[in-house]
Amino acid sequence: MIFESHAHYDDKAFDKDREELLGSLKENGIGYVVNIGANIETTKNTIRLAEKYSFIYGAAGVHPSDTDELNEENFMWLKEQCSHPKIVAVGEIGLDYYWDEPDRKIQKEWFDRQLEMAKEVKLPVVIHSRDAAEDTLQMMKGKHVGDLGGVIHCFSYTKEIAREYLNMDYYFGIGGVVTFQNAKKLKEAVEYIPLEKILLETDSPYLAPVPYRGKRNSSLNLSYIAEGIAAIKGVDYEDVVRITEENAKKLFGIN
Ligand code: NI
What we know:
The chain is of the alpha/beta class and 255 residues long. It has helices at 18-24, 40-52, 72-81, 104-121, 133-142, 159-167, 184-192, 222-233, 237-252, and strands spanning 2-7, 30-36, 56-60, 87-96, 125-130, 150-152, 171-174, 198-200.
């Protein structure tokens, strides 16, 4: 079964047909979904979805762009959610210098504290890093997060950066961008990264693969992403699905 490692099904883009869509995943070969929190509210929504659907798991965390909402009180709440049986990761957390808000100092402070939190609760991390390769790496190395384990979601950096994360034994979330014709750098990285270190992800409702680029994305499109990876690596589609499922189960501790 296909393992969807990163989606946002609580997004309002799914308000009209969420139940129908989620209900159709299994019959289309999608066996597991990790719904990702991006702030306090979406972490709440994530837990609600994970409690409702047996095949949905969750990640609890605050995206760098939303870190200005964090304070001691809701941070404590966030940490408590990490002991929920369906919460399998802390995320998505990291640094975003593309949108570059709030102030980098604030982003760094809460990235640091959420990394620390993941260590305390012993959960892997889901990392969001955009236009911030150097600082992200530096902070993760400084925290010695190798033991923690985790995934670099929507990996968008070079082969050289990929090597650094491979040395830390991290996984790489590969999504719709791999099917874009102009994604030369990413295709090179995917060729280089061993299949044993790749997770399939959509980031739904965003980043739909070709031939649905620009439309609302859903896990139903993961087959296009798996096909893209299979073509780049010269392996069978079935192997991509099977191995990425094993990878995700190992990382998130799901049997
Ligand atoms: Ni995301």
